[in-house]
Amino acid sequence: MTKVAFNISMSLDGFITAGNQTREEPLGKNGEFLHEWFFSSGAEGDAYVQRLTSNIGAVICGRKCYDDSIPYWDENGPTGALRLPLFVVTHRPLLASHSTGIYHAVRTIPDAVKQATSAARDKDVSLMGGADIFRQALAGGLVDEIELHIVPVLFGAGTRLFDTLPEQIKLEPTSMLETPLARHIAYRVVK
């Protein structure tokens, strides 16, 4: 059964971006440190990344994430050679060069989840960000699992993930893995 899993890297003090965000540094000053675990965690980390990505069939992100990532994504989208469909929640058109069938603009989070679930073909849907999209999806009961990649850094400023939640959300821990550059903790959302 397809599940919607929110995956995100976060500083130990709860930020998913560092402070001082600019167009050149959309994750803030030294914010890319949040993703180093994904690219250089050694054999155990590489095996974890493979497990994490092997059952994803589609991806959802918000407009800010899309706009910030354009310099880093090509016509294949965020999953590169896998060419998984990306559903961008937005009210504005996407870049003309992103009309390759990978990128899809959708107006609401429920529509994005519905279309991504269909496109995933029994695989999981990865909700990749940002914080606002996550909070809205969580409030709408659309998130099945939360996987946090807690990176050993204190930013002190930036974008907080859990800044405003509409209500108390109960979680059940399902797994934890320690790698050299992050602690990976997964929770099932109790509905």
Structural class: alpha/beta
Order of strands across the main sheet: 5-4-3-6-1-7-10-9
Radius of gyration: 16 Å
The unreliable regions are none
**Domains, number:** 1
End-to-end distance, in Å?
16 Å
> Major beta sheet, specifics?
8 strands, mixed
Order of helices and strands: EEHHEHEEHEHEEEE
How many beta-strand runs? 10
CATH topology: Dihydrofolate Reductase, subunit A
Number of helices: 5
Q: Per CATH, which architecture?
A: 3-Layer(aba) Sandwich
Name of the CATH first level: Alpha Beta
Molecular shape: globular
The CATH superfamily is Dihydrofolate Reductase, subunit A
Helix content: 10-25%
* Proportion of residues in extended strands: 25-35%
Task: Look at the structure and give the mean pLDDT.
Answer: 89
Please describe the topology of this protein.
Blueprint (H helix, E strand, L loop, with lengths): L3 E8 L3 E4 L17 H4 L2 H13 L1 E7 H7 L16 E4 L13 E4 L2 H12 L3 E6 L1 H9 L5 E7 L6 E3 L10 E9 L2 E8 L2
Parallel strand pairs: 1-6, 1-7, 3-4, 3-6, 4-5
Antiparallel strand pairs: 2-8, 7-10, 9-10
Protein name: Dihydrofolate reductase
Keywords: Plasmid
InterPro entries: DHFR-like_dom_sf (IPR024072), RibDG_C (IPR002734), Riboflavin_Biosynth_HTPR (IPR050765)
Structural commentary:
- This protein has 191 residues and is α/β, with parallel strands linked by helices.
- The protein has a single domain (4-15, 27-189), classed as Dihydrofolate Reductase, subunit A (3-Layer(aba) Sandwich).
- The chain is 24% helix and 31% strand.
- It is built from five helices and ten strands.
- It has helices at residues 36-39, 42-54, 63-69, 109-120, 131-139; strands at residues 4-11, 15-18, 56-62, 86-89, 103-106, 124-129, 145-151, 158-160, 171-179, 182-189.
- Strands 5-4-3-6-1-7-10-9 form an eight-stranded mixed sheet, with helices on both faces. A two-stranded antiparallel ribbon has the order 2-8.
- The mean pLDDT is 89.
